């Protein structure tokens, strides 16, 4: 039995085109049915691919619209960010302060010792009103002013000191050594912060000096200090001496008295 073209067209639904199954009376029914199914399958595949492409396009447009909305509204998006700063939490600051004070008490730090709140590379120094912070960053507190003239370059200063780290632990003391230190001013034998702190002291004066890292000693494996930290010194200036150079034959030295 042969099928005419009107029968085939009436049994093919949209979106199949008329060209999908064009027939003649010369082909048997099985061949015509195979050709129609093959054409329908190919057309259906193209429709599915078009739908997938449309969905991908709509999804990309939604993502771009959302990203544009986040950027313009100031809401942070889930994108990699560099150089972000963490908002400081007052609770965390109080917690770090209490932790620092507890460690200082365990180390028997002196009265009104400064507290250091360290968060990464940032350090906040908490001090009482007795301290004075200078433009250089040095912080001082005079326990006693003393009398006489302040030391000048070339003069020798004789002083006692106690050195502390940020946790209030004592790291050095001339009192325990049993003899004071002697240094000529201007010889670069002292770290910049210490020399600045002692330069305007007077004999008999007592002062606490808080030295920031930028005015502190160099750090590294070849030095005593392994990291950039604040250093605290309680200094007692005992005397200031004049110095003169003397030469005896081929020998030359400096005498201070």
Quick summary:
This protein has 257 residues and is of the alpha+beta class. Helices cover 31% and strands 25% of the residues. Strands 3, 4, 5, 6, 7, 8 and 9 form a seven-stranded antiparallel β-sheet that branches. Strands 1-2 form a two-stranded antiparallel ribbon.
Structural commentary:
- This is peptidylprolyl isomerase.
- It is an enzyme of class 5 (isomerase).
- This protein is of the alpha+beta class.
- Helices cover 31% and strands 25% of the residues.
- The protein contains 5 helices and 11 strands.
- It has helices at residues 5-10, 29-73, 90-106, 174-177, 192-199; strands spanning 115-119, 122-126, 132-133, 139-144, 156-164, 170-173, 181-184, 206-211, 231-241, 243-248, 251-256.
- Strands 3, 4, 5, 6, 7, 8 and 9 form a 7-stranded antiparallel sheet that branches. A two-stranded antiparallel ribbon has the order 1-2.
- Strand 3 (132-133) and strand 4 form a beta hairpin.
- The N and C termini lie far apart (136 Å).
Rg over CA atoms, rounded to whole Å, is 43 Å
According to DSSP, the number of beta strands is 11
- The SSE string, one letter per element, is HHHEEEEEEHEHEEEE
Question: Hey, roughly how much beta strand do the residues contain?
Answer: 15-25%
Q: Identify the overall geometry.
A: elongated
What can be said about the biggest beta sheet?
7 strands, antiparallel
Structural class: alpha+beta
| Terminus-to-terminus distance | 136 Å
Supply the number of helical segments. Answer: 5
Helix content bin: 25-40%
Mean pLDDT: 76
Unreliably modeled segments: 1-27, 75-85
